[in-house]
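Board notes (copied after class):
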Amino acid sequence: MFAGEHRCHIDVPDEVPSPTSLWHSCSPARLADGARGRGARGLLERETAGSENCLVSNVRRIQLALGLVLGVILAGTIGYVVLGFGVLDAVYQTVTTITTVGFREIHPLDVAGKIFTIVLILAGVGTVLYAFGVVIETLVEGHLRRHFERRRMERNIARMTGHTIVCGWGRVGRAVGSYLSGQGADVVVVDLDPERVAQTPYPALVGDVTDDDVLRKAGLMRARALVAAINTDAENVYVTLSARALRPDLVIVARARTEESEPKLLRAGATRVVNPQRIGGQRIAAAALQPNVVEFLDVVMHDGSLEFRLEEVSIRPGSRLAGRTLDQADVGETTGALVLALRDGDGGFVANPPSQTPLAAGYVLIAIGTQQQLSALTTAALPAG
């Protein structure tokens, strides 16, 4: 359990026909824990909705104020045209009147003109002052800036392809985002807490990730992968179900807090389920028994201080590697990379594959080498020509 997080023991049923049914098998005690979690979640949702409503309200107030100013200018122009002014003179007279510049009238005014000008001054000056006050208030409170920042962020996300969506910006989500960014991958963060999102160094959205519209705004239809790293297993199941329904081909990695939830997340559609507590415990034990092996793997996979990297390379249809054996492909000689293992079409792993191992499209090679060597292997695995 991570510090500062609440442990929510919400069991997910063995069958997951719909997100709604996931809550029905909770015991009373667990329902109480879930209610507290949903209460905090509801508070965040209300705060987020309130912030959004305030922003929309201020934008609408600016639009209304500008509309009123334009309306007064239009009414004043029409009035002066009726009084015998030319169109340009009428516009000029109206603007100088409502802005209280104080220039003299372009043409002498009769009684009707003076009465009209008085009415225009009373209506126009009040409208201009109101519009000025609304704009100043919005600028001072930062609503307009946040509005444009959000619109710019949404446009940036709309242009992204092949990115990874990280749902939940807690400790696990931050670690995932940091590693992905270090590998040169684009990251989009979605979290319900505006304060967390404000601290995110990546493109981010404030919203409920169980909402399909929020996932679409995050670019789910163009994403490479989605990471469900929310605090509760039930919410991760919701996200997994929604994402899998929208994108059957999407890579979904889900976080599980309990071992009992791992198979249920897999049935919900997760490509891979990770239990940080269990994996953390295994890494600690491995570091105690084989510290050098663990340190080497950490350096190769995460550190970057060594020239060598460990990567996976998928063999594409039409590749020169497909249909050959490892010996015939001569991967080591032509690319310099060392194949440590491969994953065949059935999903099984073959460690230290013999030289006569046949290769086929869809196989995944696990190789180690320099960045240049691995790039050469990746190129060889692409379709020829």
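Comment from the instructor: Confidence is low (pLDDT under 50) at residues 1-52. The beta strands are 164-167, 187-191, 204-206, 225-228, 251-255, 272-274, 308-314, 338-343, 349-351, 364-370.
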